[in-house]
Amino acid sequence: MIKPISSLIRKLPTDLIAWMLLLGPLTIWFVHFGFVYAVPNVENILTGGRGHISQIVIAVASIAALALIMLIAYIVPSFEPRDKEPARLWVYVTRFLSLVASVAIIFQTLPIFLV
């Protein structure tokens, strides 16, 4: 499954790929942040109380977000811009942002199990 997606991505301009992979973990973190706050509110509106459905949904979404971020961190070296001088720095920065986003997602997910 990664191979066809990889071939589609390689058809895009290299600068666009670089920006997509660099900002991908932060975008996933942003979407997860909104999702974590929206799901319990929607459940509260629909059911009139607090249930365990939102906890399960948020846990599954957090695992999916972490998997996407790890996938980005894994495939980053194969898409590094070879025509640019600081290519290795780009890989390290992208992996660092992946780590920051992963830690943030974990800390956003922990309170749903404590309440």
Q: Counting H and I runs of at least 4 residues, what is the number of helices? A: 4
Distance between the termini: 38 Å
The total count of strands amounts to 0
- Average pLDDT over all residues: 83
Assembly type: single chain
Helical fraction equals over 70%
Q: Which sequence of SSEs, written as H and E, runs from N to C?
A: HHHH
Shape: elongated
| Major pleated sheet | none
Number of domains: 1
Radius of gyration: 17 Å
Structural class: mainly alpha
Which ranges are low-confidence, i.e. pLDDT below 50, for 5 or more consecutive residues?
A: none
**Roughly what fraction of the amino acids lie in strands?**
under 5%
Report on this structure.
- With 115 residues, the chain is mostly helical.
- The chain has one domain.
- Helix content is 82%, strand content 0%.
- It contains four helices and no strands.
- The chain has helices at 2-10, 14-47, 53-75, 87-114.
- Helix 2 (14-47) packs parallel to helix 4 and helix 3 runs antiparallel to helix 4 (87-114).
- The protein is elongated and about 55 Å long.
- The protein starts with a helix and ends with a helix.
- The mean pLDDT is 83.
Brief synopsis:
The protein has about 120 residues and is mainly alpha-helical.
Features:
0% strand; mainly alpha; 115 residues; elongated; 82% helix
Secondary structure layout plus pairing:
Blueprint: H1 2-10, H2 14-47, H3 53-75, H4 87-114
Helix pairs in contact: 2-3, 2-4, 3-4
